[in-house]
Write a structure and sequence with these properties.
The complex is a heterodimer.
Chain A: H1 14-23, H2 27-38, H3 44-60, H4 67-100, H5 105-108, H6 115-127, H7 131-134, H8 136-142
Chain B: H1 11-27, H2 30-41, H3 47-63, H4 70-99, H5 108-112
Helix pairs in contact in B: 1-2, 1-4, 2-3, 3-4
Classes of the chains: A mainly alpha, B mainly alpha.
Chain lengths: ~140, ~120
């Protein structure tokens, strides 16, 4: 399995692809890949964006690419999919462990809630004159909206 | 009205932009290319395309300033001024056309060469 990387520089072959496209002025391919390359963060969303970007380049800038570059793109797509699947599976296992221990994911976060601040917000909301707080029938009619 | 309707040669700014893009490719100014390429490649001469180009060039000036030389910054600034003029002029012309109930979906060149009634504002 490919390792997790935080920088797109470490994605195998991608930097070489971009340099070659700059030299050959493959502007269409660059248009698709550069935003994902520059905003890559090593997480699932970054890998997902990168995967979609190189696939778009393969689809819409096919005429600008060589055979070798197409193979490199296939390699990048495959490794991105492996990494995304592994990360999702690991998150799923963690969630299953939490649930098996009798905790809900929401309960895990309860420790971090600042209850005083939260009840302050609730008081503030309830202080607003609104028919639903005092008059249930008005609330019923309002819920039609 | 006469000062509204002036022909604009779209090749001149695009020659500058072509040259800029080539130089950025040579120097691998990836941030600048990333900002400008979507608007540059989808440019069709209509006002919304000018607007996209305007936004893209402003992003280049603000986000990719570290990749540009002083001369390139100057050129980008000139292109931004030009794009803003074109957008403003197109909106003026669209306003006049709307007043006279002429269907508005023309290209920029036809907007700039349009003949208006003498009663125009």
């Amino acid at each position: 399995m490919a390792e997790l990387t935080k920088s797109a520089e470490q994605v195998p072959g991608l930097r070489d692809l971009i340099e070659a496209w700059c030299d050959r002025r493959c502007l269409n391919a660059l248009k698709y890949v550069l935003p994902a390359y520059l905003s890559f963060n090593g997480r699932i969303d970054g890998w997902s964006m990168l995967c979609a970007a190189v696939r778009n380049a393969r689809t819409f800038a096919h005429d600008e690419l060589t055979e070798g570059e197409l193979e490199t793109i296939c390699l990048i797509v495959r490794s991105a999919k492996e990494i995304i699947t592994a990360r999702l599976r690991r998150q799923g296992d963690r969630l299953q462990n939490v649930l098996a221990a009798g905790w809900s994911p929401a309960a895990e976060r309860l420790d971090y809630v600042d209850w005083r601040r939260l009840w302050g917000v609730v008081d503030l909301i309830q202080s607003v004159p609104w028919p639903s707080w005092s008059n249930p029938s008005a609330a019923k009619s309002h819920s039609q909206f | 009205m006469a000062q509204l309707v002036q022909p604009l040669r779209s090749e001149e700014p695009f020659a500058v932009l072509n040259k800029l893009v080539r130089e950025w490719c040579d120097r691998q100014c990836l941030e600048a290319l990333s900002q400008v390429l979507p608007a540059y490649l989808s440019f069709n001469g209509l006002p919304d395309a000018w607007s996209r180009l305007f936004d893209a060039l402003r992003n280049v000036r603000s986000l990719a300033r570290y990749e540009l030389t002083d001369e390139e910054l100057k050129k980008v600034g000139n292109l931004i001024d030009l794009a803003s003029q074109v957008i403003r002029r197109a909106s003026d012309v669209a306003f006049v056309l709307n007043r006279h109930a002429v269907p508005v979906n023309p290209s920029l060149d036809s907007l700039l060469h349009a003949k208006f009634p003498a009663t125009a504002v």
